[in-house]
């Protein structure tokens, strides 16, 4: 995309480098040296390549899974150029070997603003609600778009911080309803339905080919606090795995959320270790695949056992004819239905059903009574489910929002010129 008139009120901005930007440029190399093994190559504020989009991520490596799932979406698009902007040194060192996109380390606010000023971004895209997002939001000459890092019924998926962004891209009607029911004084016109572009990607399966029935247990982590805790590992995990072992002609695939592996909850840690040991002792064909891409596993899954999380909804999209057992750690069916409409299309694992989990698995493999409900829920959560439609909707929305924002900026600048 060529830079439009609104960004170039025009040569005046490029011809007058602010004192602020000059100071940042002069001190950049020294500051980067202070941060360690960082090469300033490609980050000379006097010679920054133009790009259309800044993909912003300020968190530590433990949260990189939030960004990694978006990288292929941006890497595969050639019409708009994207640069990844990170604020954490460890994240930078880990990320720059994992993407073909240019990655820039911008540890300080003043350098971030200088970068934005010189790079002439048209859009800044955010995958979470990290607190330093608000530093980035102070840049007025780009449209700020929040995309989140999944489609989920977790309460953390809806935040009052949504009001801060120009646009919030969501998967479909379920997310629109989620925002309406949780946020007061929120303008729904800021929401844009784009589906889930990651689900259009062709992800290779990490599993060995097999004619066995594949039962995948993919629990989430315990969250930052109790209200965001949806994990089943501490309450039901070992029982689920043991029951899956007993299903004839079946294999268990255990793929926990990345943060289960480093959980701060002692019972989650203990049960996770117990599950890994159970799989190790049981041996093939059962597998523990901590580093695999869940989007490569779900299309091979004949029955999913998971928590309220994006994994459950991704499975609904990728394998709509495969049944789901949804866990409920609170054993409160009415509340579960209110929090996650998807539960109406699943058998539920809770304190009342865990004692016969083996029978629950067998029954759902034999007789899929929720298939029609899942089909309706798939449309409710994702809208148009034709392959490729999400990617098309996503890039159409970004292109349109960039054009609209640039046009608005151009009008503001013309008015100011007239007033001056």
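^ structure tokens above, recovered residues below v
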């Amino acid at each position: 995309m060529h830079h439009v008139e609104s960004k170039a009120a025009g040569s005046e901005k490029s011809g007058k480098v602010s004192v602020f930007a000059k100071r940042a440029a002069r001190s950049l190399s020294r500051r980067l040296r202070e941060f360690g093994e960082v090469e300033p190559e490609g980050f000379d504020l006097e010679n920054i390549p133009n790009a259309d989009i800044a993909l912003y991520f300020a968190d530590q490596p433990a949260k990189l899974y939030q960004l990694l799932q978006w990288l292929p979406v941006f890497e595969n698009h050639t019409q708009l150029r994207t640069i990844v902007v990170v604020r954490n040194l460890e994240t930078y060192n880990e990320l720059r070997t994992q993407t073909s996109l240019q990655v820039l380390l911008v540890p300080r606010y003043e350098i971030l603003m200088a970068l934005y000023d010189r790079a002439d971004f048209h859009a800044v895209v955010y995958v979470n609600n990290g607190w330093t997002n608000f530093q980035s939001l102070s840049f007025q000459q780009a449209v700020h778009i929040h995309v989140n890092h999944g489609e989920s019924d977790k309460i953390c998926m809806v935040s009052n911080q949504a009001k801060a962004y120009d646009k919030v891209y969501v998967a479909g009607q379920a997310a629109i309803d989620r925002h309406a029911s949780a946020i007061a004084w929120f303008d729904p016109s800021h929401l844009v339905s784009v589906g889930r572009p990651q689900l259009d990607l062709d992800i290779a399966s990490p599993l060995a080919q097999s004619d066995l029935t594949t039962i995948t247990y993919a629990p989430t982590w315990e969250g930052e606090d109790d209200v965001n805790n949806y994990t089943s590992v501490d309450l039901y995990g070992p029982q689920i795995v043991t029951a899956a072992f007993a299903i004839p002609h079946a294999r268990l695939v255990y793929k926990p959320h990345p943060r289960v592996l480093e959980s701060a909850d002692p019972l989650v840690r203990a049960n996770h270790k117990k599950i890994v040991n159970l799989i190790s002792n049981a041996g093939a064909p059962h597998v523990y695949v901590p580093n695999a891409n869940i989007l490569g596993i779900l299309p091979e899954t004949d029955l999913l056992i998971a928590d309220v999380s994006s994994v459950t909804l991704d499975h609904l999209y990728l394998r709509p004819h495969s049944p789901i057992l949804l866990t409920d750690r609170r054993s409160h069916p009415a509340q579960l239905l209110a929090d996650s409409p998807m539960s109406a299309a699943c058998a539920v694992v809770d304190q009342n059903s865990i004692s016969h989990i083996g029978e629950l698995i067998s029954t759902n493999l034999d007789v899929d009574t929720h298939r029609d409900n899942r089909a309706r829920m798939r449309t409710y959560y994702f809208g148009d489910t034709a392959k490729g439609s999400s990617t098309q909707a996503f890039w159409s929305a970004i292109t349109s929002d960039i054009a609209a924002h640039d046009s608005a900026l151009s009008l503001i600048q013309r008015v100011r010129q007239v007033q001056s």
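The two ends are 31 Å apart (CA to CA).
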